Amino acid sequence: MIDIFKFDVYRGPNLGVYIRSNDNVVLVPMGYAKTKAEKLAKYLDVDVLYTSVTNTRLIGALCIMNNKGILLTKTAYQN
Q1: Which among 24, 27, 61, 64 has the fewest CB atoms less than 10 Å away?
Q2: How much helix, strand and coil, in percent to the nearest 5, is found in the chain?
């Protein structure tokens, strides 16, 4: 059975624009609220990784990710 959780990012419904996840990690924008990121990681049972792609918060829109890897542009940054 799959659990369904309602979650918003930056007070909007566009979760996939800002966040990307696989079975091991959830990528969230740098500066994103630590408490919300931890809650999301707990829901998904994954680790949190704060990052930025081309100095924006648009991680979900600017990367491709599955359980084997992440495809990012050269301008990605990990904190």
Answers
A1: 64
A2: 20, 30, 50
pTM for this predicted structure: 0.85
Q: What integer pLDDT is reported at residue 49 of this predicted model?
A: 93
Alpha-carbon distance of 24 to 6, in angstroms, equals: 20
Give one word for 11, left, alpha or beta, with left for phi > 0 and alpha for psi -120 to 50.
left
Tens digit of pLDDT for each residue in 17-71?
999 999 999 999 999 999 999 999 999 999 999 988 888 899 999 999 999 998 9
Contacts of residue 2, Cβ cutoff 8 Å, sequence gap at least 6? none
At which residue do the structure tokens 């792609």 appear? 53
> What DSSP letter does each residue of 25-42 carry, written as one string?
EEEEETT--HHHHHHHHH
Cβ-contact 19, 9 below 8 angstroms: yes
